[in-house]
Amino acid sequence: MESEKTMRSSENVRPSSPTPQHLQKYKLSMLDQLAPSMVIPIVLYFLPKQQSPDHVHLLNNIITEKLKLSLSTTLSRFYPLSGRVSGDGQSIDCNDQGVPFTVVEFAGQNLSDLLRNNPDHNLPRHLLPCPVTWDASQPPHGCVALIQLSHFRCGGFALGAVFWHKVGDAVTVATFLDSWAATTRPAVLSPTLAAEPVVPDYTAAAAAFPHNEQLAATQSSSYSSLSAIMRTGKSVMHRYVFDRNSISSIRAAAAAGRRPPSRVEVVSALIWRCFMSASLANGRSESVLTHAVNMRRRAHPPLAAACFGNFAGVGLAASENTIGDLGRLVGKMREGISKIDGDFVERMTVQSGGLAGYEENVRQTWSGKGEGVDPLCVSSWCNMGLYDVDFGWGKPTWVNRFDTGNHNLDSPFFFNLVWLMDSRDGDGVEAWVTLDEKYMDVFDRVQDLRDHASVDPTPLTSPTHA
Q1: What angle separates helix 263-281 from helix 326-338, to the nearest 10 degrees?
Q2: How far apart are alpha carbons 18 and 24 in whole angstroms?
Q3: Where is 181: in which H helix or E strand?
Q4: Are 274 and 418 in contact (CB under 8 A)?
Q5: Which of 9, 118, 184, 308 is deepest in the core (most CB within 10 A)?
Q6: How far apart are CA 71 and CA 74, in angstroms?
Q7: Residue 281, SS3?
């Protein structure tokens, strides 16, 4: 597919209004400093509303120009994204250099053909503006965000974007995409449809979790939230899709006298139970499941979704690798996540403990967990409204991250990791599971998983598991 890619243009899209001088140095908050130094990749796929091959070239030009213009306006609000990472990696120089915006064309490809019948795991790689690895100390060329617009013969297009994780989490990414789309829609459809765009809040992180000079001075990996779970070797990714009926079935089995679990809870519990089989087969007797938790909603009082930056905590549940009741695993997850509460958040604020509070939270979270436990990390992007990101040409047909494992890549680093995404109908869940290849050999054959999930189905129709 790469051989069919034609570069059409590449430029830096700058904010429509210059960043005021007093905002031109954006210091990372303590929580940003503690975030992993990796990139967040995402691709949104938009099928054409109508097949009109005679007008595809004109439509592509219109889409390109309107997206660039609205991006420029949006960057005036999200000004750190158009800056560059400082040499020490502790701040953003908000110098309005702009977001690299690349436009490519796949003139011989229809987007629907690429998404039909078990889409290639490597497809997002061709649609992102730069390579994605787990061990990047700095983003490419110091850019905080990079974007690639890919046009297809049918008139469909894909938007691939990469964001430096240290400047924001998944909620920040979703907020930016929503704001960009809201800025574009009136120019595409009608000015009367203009909505008040989201304006990010930069004050919450700076006030509660200001930049920590101790972290800046040490830049020590001992503080990394990833150091304990990083693995080296070969990993493999498979995509499993749980439809509405499968989730209802799992939920019924897991509820049994408990508060009915959510989609995310039941899928996480089932995947954890299947992971236990793989862990046991590889000589491990105990496993832990970590779940990323949005702390904005856990703070007292709650913080707005538009708070810019990293606000993710980690809930942890541990269990011996005994293949038992799903409801028991749901209960363990709920207990671990419930500890990410107002007190947890408060301990890390500068008014309470700051970095010492963070260290205390880590100590409490991992207390009693032996060094030999097998970690499985879960991060859910469900319920973030990504399928509502409409630039004016319709909502996306598919939204995904990118992680194919490293089986054919140079980087030896990976995690036993699960990304959960909404299915397009909003009732199902897509699980992108990356495991050590020896683990995946066992995990993929667990009958419980095969009974409830479809493997790599087309995203063009609502998932239906036979």
Answers
A1: 110
A2: 10
A3: helix 170-188
A4: no
A5: 308
A6: 5
A7: helix
Reported as a single tens digit per residue, the pLDDT across 398-418 is: 999 876 555 555 566 677 999
Residue 173: closest CA among 185, 161, 159: 161
In this structure, the chain runs to a length of 466
Concatenated DSSP letters of 197-263? PP--B-HHHHHHS---HHHHHH--GGG-SSTTT-EES-EEEEEEEE-HHHHHHHHHHHHTTSPPPPH
Tokens of 229: 């779970």
First to last CA, the chain: 32
Token representation of residue 234: 């070969």
Active site residues: 165, 390
* Residues near 50 by beta carbon (within 8 Å), at least 6 away in sequence: 155
What CA–CA distance (Å, rounded) separates 37 from 33?
9
Residue 158, both tokens: 């894909």
Q: Say if CB 458 and CB 45 are below 8 A apart.
A: no
Distance of alpha carbon 133 from alpha carbon 262, whole angstroms:
31
| Token couple for 385 | 């409204």
DSSP 400-447: E-----STTSS--EE--EEEEEE-TTSSSEEEEEEEEHHHHHHHTT-H
Q: At what angle do helices 56-77 and 170-188 cross, to 10 degrees?
A: 130
Token representation of residue 160? 């691939």
CB 157 within 8 A of CB 65: no
